[in-house]
Amino acid sequence: MLRRFLKILAWIAGLVFILICTLFVYVRLVSKVVPPSPISLSPLDEKVVELSPGLSTVGNNWLRKSESGLYELYVEGEPFERGVANGKLTRALVQHQEEVFTHQIHKLVPNRFYLTLLKYF
User: Fold this and answer.
1) To 5 degrees, how large is the angle CA 22–CA 27–CA 29?
2) Both 12 and 69 in a single domain?
3) Which residues are paired to 71 by β-bridges?
4) In a shared domain, residues 24 and 66
5) Is residue 36 domain-resident?
6) Same domain as 1, residue 56
7) DSSP character at residue 45
8) 56 and 89 in contact (C-beta within 8 Å)?
9) 1 and 60 inside one domain
10) Same domain, 27 and 47
11) Which of 18, 61, 70, 91 is the most buried (most CB within 10 A)?
């Protein structure tokens, strides 16, 4: 009786193992994504023009700080062009936000040991 139970258990474990391996292979085959290549790299050459202290432009794309203090971003074009314009216009803002965020974290958690523990949560 015990031998028969172990045999059935081994078959079930083997089938589960085969199913998991098959699923893993299927996911690996299906999830291969080839990134598209941009048609033109000319958007990389465009420069950010600061028209006023709260308004920056790259071509027809712009970033401005509204009267209420919120930032407004307008981008147009192909996906690659929009991404480049977004990155160029918001670079300084994102860097500033990261500096403020890390400064606040260091203020809240001054101990170096606890800061390293936070990386894992």
Assistant:
1) 95
2) no
3) 65
4) no
5) no
6) no
7) G
8) yes
9) no
10) no
11) 61
% the chain with pLDDT above 70: 100
**Average pLDDT, rounded, for the chain:** 93
In angstroms, the CA 83 to CA 92 distance is: 15
pLDDT in tens, 66-95: 999 999 999 999 999 999 999 999 999 999
pLDDT tens-place string over residues 90-121: 999 999 999 999 999 999 998 889 888 888 87
- How far CA 57 is from CA of 44, 47, 51, in Å, comes to 14, 9, 7
pTM for the model stands at 0.66
Question: If you average pLDDT over residues 33-46, what whole number do you get?
Answer: 88
Q: Which domain holds residue 102?
A: 42-118
Stretch 8-36: mean pLDDT? 93
Which alpha helices (H) appear in the chain, and where do they start and end? 2-30, 79-108, 112-118
Four-residue CA torsion sign, 48, 74, 35, 21: positive
CA distance 86 to 63: 9
